Structure formats: structure tokens, C-alpha cells
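Q: Hi! First time doing this. I have a protein sequence and I read that you can turn it into a structure. Is that right? Here it is:
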Amino acid sequence: MRKRSHRPRVVLAVAVAAALGAAGCDAVGGDSPAPSATAKPSPRPTPLWDRSPSSVAAVGDSITRGFDACDVLSDCPEASWATGASPEVDSLAVRLLGRAGAAERSWNYAVTGARMADLPGQVAQAVRRKPQLVTVMVGANDACRATPSAMTPVTEFRADFEDSLRSLRKALPKAQVFVASVPNLKRLWSQGRTSPLGKQVWQLGICPSMLGDADAVDATANLRRNTVQKRVEDYNKVLKEVCAKDERCRYDGGAVYDYRFGTAQLSRWDYFHPSVNGQARLAEIAYRTVTAQRP
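A: Yes, that's right. Below is the predicted 3D structure, encoded as C-alpha cells:
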């Protein structure tokens, strides 16, 4: 007896499989609808770094307080690179928030003479405002001691900075942090020692480890200044390394340290702290770092 051919069944099975495949059953399951060609793509995740924060708090030392920018041996917070209202400076807060916004939503907790050990206390004050951005510029006073041996040890500098960021992160998990490098103190000495007035003010006790005996260039003086300069470089390495561990922290990449302050950018009273012009340059560096697409 002749066997019946199974060819029609095979053809039918192939046709059914093709139909099911066209309907997307293999991809999404038998009871699931096929994906639509017009389906909206998944939204992109919110970037960790907001280039336009809506509030700013500043912590740090005399530079952020605008010391000697407007008058001799006096703070001038209106000229601060971080939060000042001076139109000659165009502070970071003004550039980010506008002049009215900066007046309402920026705060300066920096203290002249502050060292890294003082930063945790300043951060504790700043977080009460719940700022979206905290600026940090500190470290010069840790190097500017009576003698090089009195400078803050690098291990302590690191521990206090880590403690500050840890406290900030605990209180404000999403707050952003801009960290400025410590200025090149030896370059400031080189610029300021050309001013007789500046050297007279230095004798009042401004950064004696670097500026003391300003005209001395013997081996002992050079060793002293080089020791201070090396400590500044070590501090900047700490700032960079600790900041890099926090995904919402941006270090300036050494921009403040590398900036070549000329006499126009230095206070006409002490030829060491930034003048109003120098504060404006610091504001530019900060704004460029904060608003960059990538750190």
C-alpha cells in the first residue's frame, strides 16, 4: 500500500512558525503584544553633575573672604570670587544664579585664617542652608605657618578633608562640591617681593614660612621656601585624590595653582592676596570648572 506523504503538514508547520515569528512571539512571549515601532525610548538617566545649580555656599579661608581686596587688612566679602556681589568680580554665584539670585541663594562661611582643621565646622554651618553647590578653597594657611616645621602634616590635612566631605555627604547626599587648588605660594612671593610696601605688610605676619626674609635668597632661605612649596603640592594631591572618590565632587585640576597672578591680580596692600581683579580671575576658573560637560 502506498504511504501518504507528510509534505503538506511540513509546509503548514513552517507557515505557522513564520506567522508567529512575524508577530514577535519569540521575542516577547506568547501572550505579550509585539513591540511597537513608535514606542518612546527610555528616558536618559539624570546626570550626576548639574551644571546649573540653584544655590551656592562657600567655605574656606581669607581668599574666599576677599581679604585685602578692598582695604588694608580687612575682609571684603562683596569681592569674593565665590559669592561676592561686586560687578567687577562677577562671582561664581552671580554667574550661576544672576545678581538677584546670588543675593538670595548664596552664603559665605569662609573665615580669614582658617585651616583645613576648621573645614568640618564650616561645612556643618553650610549644610543648614541645603545648598546645591559647595565651594571649597582652603590649604594656604596650613602651609603659611611661622616655620615650615609648624605646617599641617599631610596625613592630618587628608583626614580633615575626608571628614568634611563625609559630613557633607551624610547631610546632603546630592550636593555638589567644587574644590579649588591651593595657590602657588612661591610664585606669589616672587611677584610680591618687588613691592617695598608689600614687604612691609608681610612683616606683620602674612605667611612667614614663605614670605619671611623676603629678600634672602641664600641656601637656607631657598630650602625653606622649597619645603613650603612641596607641602602645597602635597596638599593639592590630597585635594585631587579625595575629591576623585566622590562622584559629585570636581577638583579644578590645579588651575588656581597654575594661574600666573601678576601684580594686577594681587592686593595693592599686601601683594599676596588676590585683588578685585584677581578675584575675578578665580571666579572665571570656578565657573569654567562647574559648567564644563566633563571634569
